[in-house]
Amino acid sequence: MPEPVIELEGICKEFPTDPPVRALSDVRLRVERSDYLAIVGPSGSGKSTLLNVLGLLDVPTSGSYRLDGVETTALGDGARTRLRGSRIGFVFQSFHLLSRRTVVENTMLAEIYGGQSRRGRRERALAALDRVGLGHRAGFPPERLSGGERQRAAIARALLGEPSLLLCDEPTGNLDSRNTDAVLDLFDELREQGMTIVVITHENEVSERAVRRVRITDGVLAEE
Amino acid sequence: MDIRDLTGEAVAAITVRAARSALTTLGTVLGITTLVITLGIAATAGNQIVGRFDELTATAVTVEVPENDQEIVAWDALDRVTRLRGVVAAAALAESKESANLSVRSNLLIDPTRVTAQTLTVVAASPGLPGAARGRMVQGRFFDSGHVARRDEVVVVGEQAAKMLGITRVDRAPAVFIGDHAYTVIGILGGLRREQSLSSAIMVPPTIGRRFGLRHVTRVLVTTSLGAAELIARQAPTALSPGDEGMLQVIAQTSPTRARDAVQNDVNALFLILGLVSLVVGAVGIANVTLVTVMERTGEIGLRRALGAARRHIAAQFLLESTLIGLTGGVIGASLGIVAIVAVSAAKEWTPVLDVRLGLAAPVAGAVVGLLAGLYPALRAARMEPVDALR
Ligand SMILES: Nc1ncnc2c1ncn2[C@@H]1O[C@H](COP(=O)(O)OP(=O)(O)OP(=O)(O)O)[C@@H](O)[C@H]1O
Ligand SMILES: [Mg+2]
């Protein structure tokens, strides 16, 4: 049986405020390869906190997190950063595209911090843009794209470098229903190609398209 | 991370905010321009000052004759010096302690309430003195060989001495009393560029000087043409006193650099401080704007961290950005400064002194200013936690 992409075991996250906030409480989660998982829950329930832990942007207070079989909680800052860069693609609600840089330049950004060779980078970026159906907009700056196109550009960037996991935090939060559909169609396609996708959302439309749904309430995770 | 990628990102970040980047370089441009102009003008102006110093000191030779009962240098030996190639003017002087404090009185002012007698130095001089001491006759004329041969009782007073005695004109042949004896004043010598003490002295012909104990030559002043001073300094003693040249002491300004260095250093120090102050202002400007930029680009920093950028990558990018801004300011400042130096020199008809090292060091200085200014903002950027930066 292949290694799961994500394996969380007894994950707790406490913020050392006064009084301390327990944002995640004994979270246990397995995500297999090619899973398409939606995490839902009310505001303040700990969705973003969980995503930060999954994305190696934050370390849990206790518990074990294995990404592709690698125990991450014991890693130092540098090793965690390298693992994040090579295994995880992020899609943010606010796109985080660099303004006045072309779409293809924005996409190529995903490779500059890894060890990949510069040769063929533009071609790889253009291929990723083709994959999200944005090849014809490669030379555009993000300012001239629609919201849906921007999010697809961000997804192309996340796909560059073949991550094992696509982590999306409210990917359709800034989009109208038509653009939302386009992005969700894209997720379906990517999943068919074998990509592992974890989406945080509070929109039913988004979570219903996912194969699997988990709900988080006050930091406690439950399968639906 | 490939250095080309790092450079590409830094350059892109600068050019994307072209207007802001241009304004940010402004402080450094001003600082470097000021520095280049001040250093360049100081060097150029210093060179002009040096030119004047050199011309005077490089053409002056003085021969000191030790006091002796015997005559070491005869008055007419001066002719042999005058004939040397490269000598423009020469004069012999006789001074002594006894003649240094003589009571001199003018016949113009007889005012019992005022002390009209002055204590002045009387010096015996040969006719070539105005040329040798690089002075000019303010009034009248200097005595010539005829006066000397006829033992005429004539004197020339220094400009300062004339003032003290109240002599303003010589066309009515005023007289001065040295001791009880009257002498006719035939000229006033002023504008001395050598032996300025003669300005407050009374010059008498050698034949008259004997009365005041001024028998023997004690000093010979020679003015040479440019570049001849060293040669004349070697030849003059033999010409003046064949056989006894070893007793003569020759003073020729062999290294005028001391005077030059002193002047130049003073000027440079002042200007340098000015330029450095401007540079510090420029650095503060870059630091300020870079810090604002870092805060504005928090999201971008978070994104880069999410894409796998280590803290050092973030720091390197912001450092490189501020360094490039400083470098650009340095290049522009150096160019403007050099143009200004040439313009000022042209206006003043100076020869511009452009040090190549200055032209190369200025951009480097700009880059260093940018680098230093970027240290703190880069540190702030690198310290950001990705979670906080992405919020
Ligand atoms: N840095 C922090 N320090 C203290 N408390 C925090 C911190 N970050 C989050 N929290 C708290 O942890 C809890 C979970 O926050 P989280 O951001 O994960 O919620 P969320 O489910 O993403 O909510 P939303 O849907 O509104 O984005 C909240 O109560 C929040 O106040
Ligand atoms: Mg959230």
Folded structure, characterized:
- The complex is a heterodimer of chains A (224) and B (391).
- Chain A is of the alpha/beta class and 224 residues long.
- Chain A has helices spanning 47-54, 77-87, 103-108, 121-131, 147-159, 177-192, 204-209; strands at residues 6-15, 21-31, 36-40, 62-67, 70-71, 88-91, 165-169, 197-200, 212-217, 220-223.
- A 6-stranded mixed beta sheet of chain A has the order 6-7-8-3-9-10. A 4-stranded antiparallel beta sheet of chain A has the order 2-1-4-5, covered by helices on one side.
- In chain A, helix 4 (121-131) packs across helix 5.
- With 391 residues, chain B is α+β, with helices and mostly antiparallel strands.
- Chain B folds into 2 domains: 3-52 and 257-390, no CATH class; 66-247, no CATH class.
- A 6-stranded mixed β-barrel of chain B has the order 3-4-9-6-8-7.
- Residues 15, 17, 21, 23, 41, 43-49, 202 of chain A line the site of adenosine-5'-triphosphate.
- Give the oligomeric state: heterodimer
Q: Please give the CATH architecture of chain A.
A: 3-Layer(aba) Sandwich
Low-confidence stretches of chain B: 255-259
Helix and strand sequence of chain A: EEEHEEHEHHHEHEHEE
Number of domains of chain B: 2
Structural class of chain B: alpha+beta
Q: Give the chain pair forming the largest contact, with residue counts.
A: A-B, 28 and 24 residues
How would you sum up the global shape of chain B? rod-shaped
Major sheet attributes of chain B: 6 strands, mixed, barrel
The DSSP helix count of chain A reads 7
How many β-strand stretches of chain A?
A: 10
Secondary-structure element series of chain B:
HHEHEEEHEHEHEEEHEHEHHHHH
Q: Domains counted in the coordinates of chain A: how many?
A: 1
Report the count of strand segments of chain B: 11
Report strand % of chain A.
25-35%
Number of helices of chain B: 13
How much helix, percentage-wise, in residues of chain B? 40-55%
Annotated CATH topology of chain A: Rossmann fold
